[in-house]
Amino acid sequence: MNAGTLALLIPIVAIVGSFIISAMKIQKQQGRMSKKQEAELTALCDEIAELKHRIQVLEELATDDGESLKREINNLKRA
After folding, report:
1. Which sequence ranges are marked TM in the entry (predicted)?
2. Concatenated DSSP letters for 26-75?
């Protein structure tokens, strides 16, 4: 390997190495979640679970026999 080739390879290796190090730092930062983000994620998961339960109830009402639905509505009106 002559001096010209070596002089060309050193900056190339340095540039590629810096890109790899930068990419690893970015990946590491993205992997961490702050406590605030964890709390928001927990709140969103709870809200999704509640919404799934509401959808299940609505599906039961929508697929239920019409007469029992009428009875429930009438019971709610009387209450």
Report:
1. 6-26
2. HHHHHH---HHHHHHHHHHHHHHHHHHHHHHHHHHHHHS-HHHHHHHHHH
| Token pair in block for residue 63 | 């697929």
Structure tokens at 65: 């026999």
Q: What digits encode the pLDDT tens for the residues 6-36?
A: 778 888 888 999 899 998 888 888 777 778 8
Q: Is the pTM of this model over 0.85?
A: no
What is the C-alpha separation between 74 and 67, in angstroms, rounded?
Answer: 11
Q: How far apart are CA 73 and CA 65, in angstroms?
A: 13
Place of tokens 């007469």: 67
